[in-house]
Amino acid sequence: MSVGTGRGAAITGWGSALPPTVVTNADITTLFETSDEWIVERSGIRRRHHASGPFVADADRAPTEPADGIGSTATLAIEAGRLALERAGLTGSDIGLLVLCTTSPDQAVPATSAAVSSALGVAGGAMDLNAACAGFTYGLVTATGMIGAGIDRVLLIGAETLTRVTNFADRTNAFLFGDGAGAVVLEAVPGPGCLLGWDLGVDGSLVPLLYADHDGPGMAMRGQEVFRRAVRVTVASAEASLERAKVGIDEIALFVPHQANIRIMEAVASRLGLPQSRVASVIDETGNTSSASIPLALVDAASAGRLTDGDVVLLAGFGAGMTWASAVWRWGG
Ligand SMILES: CC(C)(COP(=O)(O)OP(=O)(O)OC[C@H]1O[C@@H](n2cnc3c(N)ncnc32)[C@H](O)[C@@H]1OP(=O)(O)O)[C@@H](O)C(=O)NCCC(=O)NCCS
């Protein structure tokens, strides 16, 4: 990326948060005609975490009220952001910009990042970024650009309560979605930094494939069509990023795809020529958490010691819009 100050960004902290309510495929079978076998075979999902919805233990609780204090997009974002700051040895007062990637904000107005910024004591500005499931990678490129423009430290969070816009009567997609948040701290480093190549895109003619209206019943999706196009655009975007980074696929230590469906993740990896052993996956545990899915998988890999300084990581996602985004990133300083 060519930007004003001639400096780049490095990831120096990371953290994640999942609501404690776990919804298994067996729980899903109480909603409509389906089975654990069908869901696992078609999607790879075994469990997902719900911040709210029909599976709360406390029947007296209002549906939108957090079950345990971490039930909104903001509260999940705050927890993941707090852990990322702690890991980086920083506090909110060190942060010049908060970017909250979400497609399920807590309110139509204002941006959810305002409440998150206040809770974490962020000194600088804050904004929401909605690029659906490609959101976190859009955010990573945006945050790196802002560091190039002069901000020293950015807190980048992907956080979702997708179950608030899930239609639990629709068996074709209700089993897919979950809630959660993942965050990273980005700090300025001299020289080009860790973003080696990137690609962002959107094809707005494909809006009808996946959408949720303000006053509609929830998510509406043409699953097979999304599946087909997702594989195609993710592969093309990843290849564009690799080419711009001048990085060969053999140099990729870890591929962190959007966690939408294990079959999409496997198909993309196989077309890129990557073995499954180099694919980060948390989908069996989280389902599709949109903007939170890539940071949840990245944080899981980092926390498990799968990443060492100098490793080159490929991130790639796609989502409603239809959006897509990919980035080649060097782990470490
Ligand atoms: C949703 C998805 C898992 C469905 O898998 P699929 O293999 O495409 O399944 P199909 O839609 O072809 O349905 C197959 C059959 O299962 C049935 N079915 C649908 N939902 C079902 C459910 N929950 N349980 C059991 N059967 C179900 C269908 O009615 C269909 O029956 P038929 O063959 O008798 O017509 C898959 O299309 C997908 O993951 N798409 C991408 C979604 C995505 O990534 N969205 C997020 C983008 S960010």
Write the layout of secondary structure elements.
Blueprint: E1 7-17, E2 22-24, H1 25-28, H2 36-43, E3 47-49, H3 73-88, E4 97-101, H4 112-120, E5 125-129, H5 135-148, E6 153-161, E7 179-190, E8 195-202, E9 210-211, E10 220-221, H6 223-245, E11 252-257, H7 262-272, H8 283-286, H9 293-303, E12 312-319, E13 323-330
Parallel strand pairs: 4-5, 4-6, 11-12
Antiparallel strand pairs: 1-7, 2-3, 6-7, 8-13, 9-10, 12-13
Helix pairs in contact: 3-4, 6-7
Bound molecules: coenzyme A.
What would you say this structure looks like, in words?
This protein has 333 residues and is of the alpha/beta class. It has 2 domains: 7-190, Thiolase/Chalcone synthase (Peroxisomal Thiolase, Chain A, domain 1, 3-Layer(aba) Sandwich); 195-330, 3-Layer(aba) Sandwich (Peroxisomal Thiolase, Chain A, domain 1), CATH 3.40.47. The chain has 9 helices and 13 strands. The chain has helices at 25-28, 36-43, 73-88, 112-120, 135-148, 223-245, 262-272, 283-286, 293-303; strands at 7-17, 22-24, 47-49, 97-101, 125-129, 153-161, 179-190, 195-202, 210-211, 220-221, 252-257, 312-319, 323-330. The strands form 4 sheets. A 5-stranded mixed sheet has the order 1-7-6-4-5, with helices on both faces. The longest helix is centred in the last third of the chain and has 23 residues, at 223-245. Residues 56-70 have low confidence and may be disordered.
Distance between the termini: 17 Å
Number of strands: 13
Number of helices: 9
Number of domains: 2
Question: Keyphrases for this structure?
Answer:
333 residues, alpha/beta, Peroxisomal Thiolase, Chain A, domain 1, 2 domains, 5-stranded mixed sheet, 4-stranded mixed sheet, 13 strands, binds coenzyme A
